[in-house]
Design goal:
With 113 residues, the chain is an alpha+beta fold. The chain has a single domain (9-110), classed as Alpha-Beta Plaits, CATH 3.30.70. The protein contains 2 helices and 4 strands, in the order E-H-E-E-H-E. The protein has helices at 19-28, 84-97, and strands at 7-14, 45-53, 70-82, 105-110. The longest helix is centred in the C-terminal third of the chain and has 14 residues, at 84-97. The radius of gyration is 16 Å and the shape is elongated. The mean pLDDT is 95.
């Protein structure tokens, strides 16, 4: 029986102005590719929302001011990563491309059912 590649979902939040740069970075790292004969690449789902944060005293915020609660229109991006190594490379690429000093992201291990 052939070994099954672990699948991960990368979810991150980004302002509209940095969306394309972040997607280009993660796709370049191998995220967004679906297995199978179709050869699909650069697959993602994007939805709009509002994020909020209050930068601490030691912060150097890209948006907002230290100590002031900030609400920002952001996009939630979800994509598939085939294998742990691809997920790790995609997160590293995201961190380099994202304008925030601490980008918000999540990685979920997916189960085959």
């Amino acid at each position: 029986m052939a070994a099954t590649v672990q699948r991960f979902k990368l979810v991150f939040f980004v302002p509209q102005s940095a969306l394309q740069a972040c997607k280009t970075a993660i796709f370049g790292a191998g995220a967004g590719r679906y297995p199978g004969p179709g050869g699909y690449t650069e697959c993602a789902f994007t939805s709009k929302g509002v994020g909020q944060f209050r930068p601490g005293d030691a912060a150097n915020p890209n948006i907002g001011e230290v100590g002031k609660l900030e609400e920002v229109e952001e996009l939630r991006v979800e994509t598939l990563c085939m294998g742990r190594e691809v997920a790790a490379r995609a997160v590293e690429a995201l961190k380099k491309a994202h304008p925030y000093e601490e980008p918000a992201y999540e990685v979920y291990k997916l189960e085959d059912l």
